[in-house]
Amino acid sequence: MNDVNDATVSGWKPDSWQRKTAAQQPHYPDADALAAALGQLRTLPPLVTSWEVNNLKAQIARAQAGETFVLQGGDCAESFADCRSDVIANRLKVLLQMSLVLVHGLRQRVVRIGRFAGQYAKPRSADLETRHGTTLPSYRGDLVNGPDFTAAARIPDPQRLLEGHMRSAMTINFVRGLIDGGFADLHHPEYWDLSWVRHSPLAVEYQRMVDMLGDSVRFMETLAGGSISDFSRVDFYTSHEALLLWSEQAQTRQVPRSDGWYNLSTHFPWIGMRTAELDGAHVEYCRGIRNPMGVKVSPSMTTEWVLALCRVLNPENEPGRLTLIHRMGADKIGDHLPALIEAVRAAGHRVLWMCDPMHGNTITAPNGLKTRPFERVASEVEQAFAIHKACGSRLGGVHLELTGEDVTECTGGARNLSHEDLERAYKSQVDPRLNYEQALELAIRIARVAG
């Protein structure tokens, strides 16, 4: 028996979270309808496999050892309407382009984890939203309710759990099909081009990197005397916030010839800042599954709190098990991160450190739209690399909210988007995302500072 995840020894069961306080859960008015939907969900095939989960854990362990770098990115909250081939392909393209830049700059492999195929729910700061004197339940993502500000749309509907599973399955299937069909072949990075490449201020620098990597691939294959399969495809993993615990429990399975329980709705679940209470339901649920997992860490979390999370979520100090995703803000990271790094290292916890530069840098524009200034996002990442280096640590990845579409949600970047530009193509229902050009620019900045 594997003691690391022996649920019998730990007293954990897939439903033991129900004895804890569960934050950020919607109130379903029809309990019978919820039970029926969950019953169907439990019978549906899993979205990922246990061996894929184990492979990712091994990759994260390599990142902890400084051998690889993790790029995690995608939508703040996926929408059912965006489960389209063009949107999915563009999202995959920008992540592949970013990883190519990072491979070139960092001179090491990149592990790619998408924030997709299940990121349909979002925590909210308030249960209710008021507009023009009318108060309704907050929009919690398409997995829960609809974004339209009507009483009917805002009622939590358990049938959406089944639709979310279906659309996640279609997304994963399409991504796998693209990759297996050669879409991610390093011999042909031109497959990944988005229309901006023809006119972007970054086009020349990006093309230079593509050409240099192409020359390197051909050189290696000349030495090897033939094609190298690793250059023809890449591994791609999925992730989402483990937020709606009824849904997560329904996809928690045991598998043949392996001890413990796996969440087979995703490869890499994470715990958000709003649900990271030590005695809360989300920590209770996540401590018992075998997946590698992340925890968002904010300036409001004490060192003692974070150390306790490390002990609870990874009691055996298993390599590849735990990732700490710090989200401090550009103006706070210097004050809070160094002490946290030192404390975790002194306690001997094996973790992968990642930087989420998005959530701590959100502001409200004069027109009332939420936005994120690109320079603040880039500054937090650059500071994170410097702080880890000064502390004798290593930043092993970044966690980004981005899209492959030509949106205008974050200000700044190569085109210097202004507050006035936001209204041109602001499409997010929740948080602002980097557009494809800003995402690639950030990858180039990372390659420069960390290479």
Automatic annotation (TrEMBL):
It catalyses: D-erythrose 4-phosphate + phosphoenolpyruvate + H2O = 7-phospho-2-dehydro-3-deoxy-D-arabino-heptonate + phosphate. Gene3D superfamilies: Aldolase class I. Keywords: Cadmium, Cobalt, Manganese, Transferase. InterPro entries: Aldolase_TIM (IPR013785), DAHP_synth_2 (IPR002480). Its cofactor is Mn(2+); Co(2+); Cd(2+). Phosphoenolpyruvate binds at residues 115, 296, 327. Transmembrane segments: none annotated. One of its GO terms (biological process) is aromatic amino acid family biosynthetic process. Its EC number is 2.5.1.54. Pfam families: DAHP_synth_2. It is an enzyme of class 2 (transferase). Binds 1 divalent cation per subunit. The enzyme is active with manganese, cobalt or cadmium ions. Residues 1-23 are annotated as: Disordered. Belongs to the class-II DAHP synthase family. This is Phospho-2-dehydro-3-deoxyheptonate aldolase. It comes from Solimonas marina. The lineage of its organism: Bacteria, Pseudomonadati, Pseudomonadota, Gammaproteobacteria, Nevskiales.
